[in-house]
Amino acid sequence: MELVIQPNADRAACLVARLIAQAIREKPHIVLGLATGRTMERVYRCLVQMHKHRGLDFSLCRTFNLDEYIGLPADSPFSYRYYMNKHLFSQVNIDRRNTYLPDGVNADTDRACRQYEQQIHEFGGIDLQLLGIGAAGHIGFNEPLSALQSRTREKALTPTTIADNAPLCGGDPEKMPRRAITMGVGTILEAGRVILLATGTAKANVVAKAVEGPITSMISASALQLHRHCRVVVDEEAAANLQGKEYYRWIFDNEPEWTVYRTPDCVISGYPPCKT
Ligand code: F6R
Fold first, then answer.
1. pLDDT digits over 34-84, tens only?
2. In the chain, which end has fewer C-beta atoms inside a 10 angstrom radius, N or C?
3. Which residue has the least CA distance to atom 11 on ligand 1?
């Protein structure tokens, strides 16, 4: 695992977008694993700007999202399909037929989950998986005690997740879906590369537990310690409780693989610019 600390949330998101853009340029047929949530909005803004102003080409990309609420149709403004269309797919040249999310309205949820795994498999697996992290340590909707070998399946959301995500679902926790389909921890661990982005003070505790604490199904993100190519990108606020900060900074400041990324390169326009 590598940990990169950036001065603020804009810079952290830009760095993640640049890593994704580089991966797309290296492999135009890339299979991307995507996430939703507030943290990712900045990343998608960067990617859209890179498409519009720097020719970043999504035409051959395939995408699989981590999760989808059960019971929300694609055109519900609270569904993750709607979120992805709004923040990314409608603004870049991706072929919508190559974008996949779990089918949250299939009456046979188990079948929908098996099919999702099969589709990922048919495309050769996920090359690069983007992740956020929930306040209780989930990746995807792998809530506490999710098996570290779990596959795509239905999960009940915790009260913490329901409260955290209610603002994205109109603000009323009563109207929040209670269940979701999520890729499993085992599914996520099979991705070729993983990038987790966490920003803000609210994530400081859980980031420290996931990165520096023991591997435990109580914090599903801690399973990423087992991954051979996992990068965690955080801003100063989310890094606040990390013990190894100085070492992580030293790696970023000295290792050749990071040379190009040490120079800020903000592409978000019409949005709070990257503060250098
Ligand atoms: C969403 C997802 C979740 C979020 C996490 C953080 O597809 O998989 O794990 O990444 O809940 O959400 P925000 O960024 O809203 O704090």
1. 999 999 999 999 999 999 999 999 999 999 999 999 999 999 999 999 999
2. C
3. 134
